[in-house]
Design goal:
The chain is mainly β and 138 residues long. 8% of the residues lie in helices and 48% in strands. The two termini are 23 Å apart.
Length: 138
């Protein structure tokens, strides 16, 4: 497979998964008690692995850009409240595919961020955009 597929939306395979190797299995809450002592609670996470897919830059060249119709499809998907998770299919490191059940992650930042690679008004369907997609496994 040479692409990423998110709920039927075809994305370039060279979007960078920026937090792929970040530890996430242990959740932690830290708070202070009434007497000022720190209370730390940790537990194993069953899901919630962050998946941040992002366009990157190599000098002046963008890697993993998408056209305006894809941006609109992603925005439509993100703005829809849904009961079931989205399916994310990505290329595996050593060939084949890997599949994740995901939801949009809106907690720490917007679920989708988009910037034009070249600003022009009006935006045309052929214009290219740099994207950041924030997802999490469920």
């Amino acid at each position: 497979m040479t692409r990423i597929l998110l709920a039927g939306i075809e994305l370039p395979a060279d979007l960078q998964w920026t937090d792929e190797f970040t530890a996430w299995r242990v959740g932690q809450q830290v708070r202070n008690s009434l007497n000022g002592a720190m209370i730390v609670q940790e537990s194993a996470r069953q899901a919630g692995r962050p998946i941040t897919l992002q366009t990157t830059r190599d000098g002046t060249a963008y890697v993993g850009v998408v056209a305006l119709p894809i941006v609109r499809a992603l925005q439509a998907s993100e703005s829809e409240a849904r009961l079931s998770p989205l399916e994310l299919v990505m290329p595996a490191h050593n060939g084949g595919d890997r599949t994740f059940q995901v939801r949009w992650r809106r907690v720490d930042a917007p679920a989708i961020e988009v910037e034009p690679t070249r600003f022009a008004v009006p935006a045309l369907d052929s214009d290219l955009f740099s994207i950041t997609l924030r997802l999490m496994t469920v």
